[in-house]
Specification:
Number of strands: 20
Subunit structure: Homodimer.
Structural class: alpha/beta
Radius of gyration: 28 Å
CATH architecture of one domain: 3-Layer(aba) Sandwich
Enzyme class: transferase
CATH superfamily of one domain: Thiamin diphosphate (ThDP)-binding fold, Pyr/PP domains
Shape: elongated
CATH class of one domain: Alpha Beta
Organism: Enterocloster alcoholdehydrogenati
Pfam families: Transket_pyr, Transketolase_C_1, Transketolase_N
Oligomer: single chain
Strand order of the largest sheet: 10-9-11-12-14-13
Strand content: 5-15%
CATH topology of one domain: Rossmann fold
Catalytic activity: D-sedoheptulose 7-phosphate + D-glyceraldehyde 3-phosphate = aldehydo-D-ribose 5-phosphate + D-xylulose 5-phosphate
Length: 661
Amino acid sequence: MEMIKTKTANAIRVLSADAIEKAKSGHPGLPLGCASIAYELWAEHMKHNPADPQWADRDRFVLSGGHGSMLLYSLFHLFGYGNLSIEDIKNFRQTGSLTPGHPEYGHTVGVEATTGPLGQGMGMAVGMAMAEAHLAAVFNKEDCRIVDHYTYVLGGDGCMMEGLSSEAFSLAGTLGLGKLIVIYDSNKISIEGDTDIAFTEDVAKRMEAYGFGVFRVEDGNDFDAIGAALEAAKADTERPSVIIVRTQIGYGCPAKQGKASAHGEPLGGDNVLALKENIGWESKESFFVPQDVYDHMETVKERLKAPEEAWKARFAQYCEKYPEMKELWDQYHDRTLAEKLYDQDEFWTFEDKPQATRNISGELLNRINKAVPNLFGGSADLAPSNKTALKGEGDFSREDRAGKNLHFGVREQAMAAIGNGLALHGGVLPYVATFFVFSDYMKPVARLSSLMKAPLTYVLTHDSIGVGEDGPTHEPIEQLAMLRSMPNFHVFRPADARETAAAWYAAVTSKETPTALVLTRQNLPQLEGTGKAALKGAYVLEDSSKETPDAIIIATGSEVSLAVEARKLLLAEGMDVRVVSMPCMDVFEEQTAEYKESVLPKAVRKRVAVEALSDFGWGRYIGLDGASVCMEGFGASGPANELFEKFGFTAAHVAEVVKSL
């Protein structure tokens, strides 16, 4: 048995080395060093079924060191995920292939998360473990456990250095996520050389301080030791675990083993041949896998079917005995459930009084919670300010896994990565929240949300110079343009309660697009004519009586009411203008050309954009003949109403800019 294990691990090494060599691009170090770890985990300890890669109670595996993607692809080929063929392996890193340079969720069957930026996979794995713990608390019965799986994540020194990992591990330890198992590929090599030049901390002590159980394996090719550590980690149900495995980067290649040059460049043709000779490979032919390895893997794949078959039988009994829980299970996994809010008048109805959109958002969140039972989220220590608490739902904690309010602490980047993990796991509808200016901390993670088509909701409050006295460090200026620049990312900045309802509706019904809700601290008036039309991204709020308006004022958020007031001033002077509310540029761009022309007719070239943030991005709507009333620099510390006047956000100034065109 030991011999076929070694041979199969070597098949992973050979396939990885050959694919990288053919592509003349890639990272052989991790696949060669971790092949034995991966085989032992996938073949002997992980609960998964390649014949049904998406079954609900499978263990999750995240390769946080996504540069080592050939490790995954070799596993997928040998284990039969998505029938990934040897031709797919040969097309590694080629345009349109199923084997891109870094693993891409939704593109290659078996990839649980898009990884590459180091540390991100660690955060997402924590989110997956939190989802498992919550769903287990909601659905499991003493006589029947239908949610009972582990989350494994593999990463190296780089992942351990990234600050996101520290944030995520600190929270995981606090929560006692006993089904999270981190496998640390400790080879003491980074791109610049030995890690001692920049990384000498005692990782074991650090992880212990976070509240992790720590297990060690001194030889990354010792299957028995790896297996024993995995089982010991699984048995420690009170704490998350880290298994520190001492490996050699580029293992098996005499000229590269243990060297930084093994990390991110092909081994070279001669070195690939030397690798094969050194490990006793029976052929020098590229991409050769012995038949006995394939035969062995057929036996493994057949064995891996049993846990799912047992789960299906158990789930059928569960549904028969607990029909009310079966109904709830279906609701938790119904991605269309929130769509019924569209026809619920109470969802769109609000008091006619000035309110901050952050307050309205909090009210809406609790309305949604009554209709959609699997809401699950929270804030980076700002729930009282973000208004993101679900009333009466309890706090998710070590003691109460059924609680629906998450407390991320002051950890914005890890919070967003955890949110991605929650979304990828499935079964919960996640949201995360912080002040808008701190979206800077979350940008790399939001980008991954977009890439993965993970419909995570970002609640971002205190959206402009309206923050006031806290001053420029807390007043966002350029962040709206930053988020709007991302493909597949909807940024809503609503003007009042009904537009906020539209923004939330769009967020919780989105299937493949993350959404940012950018909300005010200060009170805003309720406007006539707002509502479901905001779901088109932009619409005519107040129109000119002329067939062709004299000008168009386009505004978002707190500046829409300002545009309405400016229109009144202009009308008194004989100028008849149209006011367009544009809560979401991204959604507006998805509309038909005919609709966009009906809102912003090309014949009207006198256009003014009004937004208390950077004007970057408004050029496409105001053109060369237009103008903007936006922020040209950073804000200041002072009462919000004084700041709006100081920076020109008054009806009179907007009217003057329109007249100046």
